[in-house]
Amino acid sequence: MADRRRVNGPVGQTAPPVYDSPRSRREAKQLGDNAIRKIFLKTGVTPSASGSAYLEIEDPNATGPSSTSLKLTCTVHGPRALPRSAPFSPHIILSTHVKYAPFATRQRRGYLRDASERDLGVHLETALRGAIIADRWPKSGVDIIVTIIEGDQNRDSPDYDGDEGWDVMNVLSGCITVASAAIADAGIDCVDTVAGGVAALVAKDDKSPPFVVLDPDVAGYHKIFAACCAAYLPTRDEVTNIWFKGQLPGADAMIYNKMVERSLVACRNANRVLVSALNETVRSG
Fold first, then answer.
1. Which CATH number is 91's domain given?
2. 52 sits in which H/E element
3. Strand 140-150 and strand 238-246: pairing?
4. Is residue 5 situated within a structural domain?
5. Which of 103, 161, 191, 247 is deepest in the core (most CB within 10 A)?
6. Is residue 31 part of a domain?
7. pTM of the shown model
8. Burial readout 133-157 (b: 16 or more C-beta within 10 A, e: otherwise)
9. How much of the chain, in percent, has pLDDT values that exceed 90?
């Protein structure tokens, strides 16, 4: 007798849907080399947490109803007292946890953190540690949890598989910005609002020379040689973390310096969105 309470799947194999004529990289809408994608940031989205924030970044290649390529949410729990068994600490204990949702990328993610997610957590902790005034909360701990709802990838591109190595830079930049907003929403004292930014050395085709761009859309370029993600405190003019990935042609130090400078420009642009979102929260509250 058939089980009427269970919805059985198909008996045979199924094939994923195929969409006609996906847009290639050459047909994608290009932003200016000195422009960044639009950012939406909102705080106070999780009432049960001490602080929370939600971030979206525009996808210039979107053709469907969704116009975003990166979606992140962050919750902050604490500061709260450490267990009695924990050793004494004169500073706050910062714990960061970055995790992709299983459906965030085209290749389904597991429920346990992999090496790339642990690396993101380490870089995020380093970036935030330079901004938080840690000695204000001795014998305390705070948990910062970032969930990547949708990765920065163009799923309609025929060259999609080549994008997965570089989208992590934009993901880390968004994690830094959304975590900074959530920390401010939690009322944790910081020396400044830290924001993330990315610059990359790219080429549009095989014949054109490489050049440096801000906030690179991975699907919009033929090849990416290197990328630099920085965490920056604009008011204090301090860098709390730099992550460089790739190889420079000829090991030119001037290109490296230019990439760092351009990534700081992207940080300042993201910080303006961050400050605007915090001011909007103060006015509405």
1. 3.30.230.70
2. strand 51-58
3. unpaired
4. no
5. 191
6. no
7. 0.84
8. ebeebeebbbbbbbbbbbbbbbbbb
9. 51
